[in-house]
Amino acid sequence: MRLYLGLPLLFCLLGSCVRRPEPVDGNAAGAAAVMPLAVLQAGENPLWFELAEDGPRQIGFPDEAELSPFTPWPLARHIRFILPRENELVIGVNRDGFLRCAPWALAGPVSEERRGIALYRTGESAYWGQYTLAAIFPHQGQAAALLYRDDFFAQPVSPLPAPRVFVLSPDSPELQAPAIPAFEEFPPAEGWDLDALHFTPGGYWYYRAVRKNTERPEIAYRRTEDLDRKGEAVSLSGFQNSALPEPFTAAPPLLRAALEASLEPGSSAAVVSPAFPGPRWFFGGGTAEKAGPEIAGFYREPGPDCPGVALAVLPDGRGIFCAEGGPAGEAAADTAVSPRPLSLPALPPGFVYTAAALCGNTLIAAWEEQEEYRIGAAGFMAVIFSYE
After folding, report:
1. Residue range 29-64, pLDDT digits in tens
2. Looking at per-residue confidence, does 123 or 191 come out higher?
3. What is the average pLDDT score of the chain?
4. pLDDT greater at residue 24 or residue 332
5. Of 106-120, 194-208, 283-297, 324-338, which range is least confident?
6. CB 86 within 8 A of CB 96
7. Is 158 helix (H, G, I), strand (E, B) or coil?
8. Spacing of C-alpha 131 from chain mean position
9. What does the pLDDT average to over 326-351?
10. Does the structure show a pLDDT above 80 at 4?
11. How far is residue 85's CA from residue 363's CA, in Å, rounded to a whole number?
12. Any residues with CB less than 8 A from the CB of 87 and at least 6 apart, and which?
């Protein structure tokens, strides 16, 4: 049975459920002003969702997703980026828009049993469906998305994106399209597209602009410490070197412990964290005849309301976590820094996990059906995370 989100239904399954959202006084004004699609109460049994054309749709398992033709990844609907922000997750869905996960208190007396994770969807799918998501990044306290027009796999039929940046506000169902001073040097009206943006631990944003409507295509590389200021020119080698992964020894101690236990020679990890402006890449080192598996990582610093935790998840769902401190009490303290095994549900053949992050104690993991560089079905899973 499938639950179509937005319908007034309540579906429960062995401690995990999706509820129709009902605002209560305990929710923030912004969260209450924008009603979520649904409230997830994850349990030990996972909740599975596919990314359908009209938004997330609950399914029993990934092999129940609607058959989708395998499409080159820049043109396919899938979870491209996750940007953790304090106690919420902003998820960038390629060719669709934003998903946001945030804590929610269900109607009635507020207790742990009546709390969940609200799932919001905001975007301009008709517009975003024409373009590829280059990056999600923080902008003046909000999450922003950068779009570009991919022409590698198909001849483009749409104009260059203008606007190319959209900002998500939790207080409004409408996306904003601000001007970004660092990008104004490359206006779409003159044929410029921005197809890459990343942050480095050195404190710089690096980005690439391309123009192909001239006799000889042009490429410009820039960097800036603040996207509200114009960037400075960098060389091709400087841009390429800025994207090289860091050694896992450069990670914070808790994250380093998880990576050290999971990274194989030749493998790399893409780690997201509320402490990072964007994904940070770490390398397992050593030499290998072929690249090792790509690991999905998450890192949260210890805080007064939650333990610190680091996750490292392999494409097949096997993983490692380390935790320390916080109100999870003895369970978290006992696992302090010492790596512990983590196991997500096994996926059908041809499916892999591509990203993982925590929203409170709910683990959100992105999955895809892959065939080389192409993607078929795609979606995400929500399950309670245990420190034991």
Report:
1. 344 467 899 999 888 899 999 999 999 999 999 999
2. 191
3. 86
4. 332
5. 324-338
6. no
7. coil
8. 18
9. 75
10. no
11. 15
12. 102, 103, 359, 360
Residue 126, C-beta contacts closer than 8 angstroms, at least 6 positions apart = none
Both structure tokens of 156: 């483009």
Residue with tokens 């491209």: 80
How many helices (H) and strands (E) the chain has is answered by 5, 27
**H/E element holding 257?**
helix 253-262
For the entire predicted model, the pTM comes to: 0.89
- Tell me the two tokens of residue 129: 């469906």
- Structure confidence at residue 6 (pLDDT): 32
* CB neighbourhood size of 150 (10 A): 19
Mapped onto helix, strand or coil, the DSSP state of residue 27 is: coil
Q: Tokens at residue 37, please?
A: 């699609």
Has residue 325 got a pLDDT over 90? Answer: no
Q: What is the mean pLDDT of residues 323-349?
A: 74
> What is the secondary structure of 311-340 as a DSSP string?
EEE-TTSEEEEEEESSTTTHHHHHTBSS-E
The dihedral region occupied by 246, where left means phi > 0, alpha psi between -120 and 50, and beta the remainder, is beta
Tokens of 91: 């998820």
Residue 354 to residues 7, 45, 68, 169: CA-CA distances in angstroms?
A: 29, 20, 18, 26
Geometric angle at alpha carbon 8, from 111 and 51, rounded to 5°: 90
**Residue 107 φ/ψ, nearest 5 degrees:** -60, 145
DSSP assignments along 72-96, one per residue: EGGGS-SEEEEEEETTEEEEEETTT
Coil, strand or helix: which one is 43? coil
Query: What is the distance between the alpha carbons of residues 375 and 161, in angstroms, rounded to a whole number?
Result: 23
Q: How would DSSP label each residue in 350-362?
A: TEEEEEEEEETTE
For β-strands 88-93 and 79-85, DSSP reports them as antiparallel
303's torsion region: left (phi>0), alpha (psi -120 to 50) or beta?
A: beta
Strands 88-93 and 97-105: antiparallel
Residue 230 has pLDDT above 70, yes or no: yes
Q: How far apart are CA 297 and CA 376, in angstroms?
A: 23
Distance of CA 24 to the CA centre of its chain: 28
As a whole number of Å, the end-to-end CA separation of the chain is 32
Closest CA to 219 of 238, 202, 249, 195: 195
Task: List the one residue out of 61, 331, 315 whose CA is nearest residue 323.
Answer: 331
DSSP state of 254: H
Q: Is the pLDDT of residue 153 over 80?
A: yes
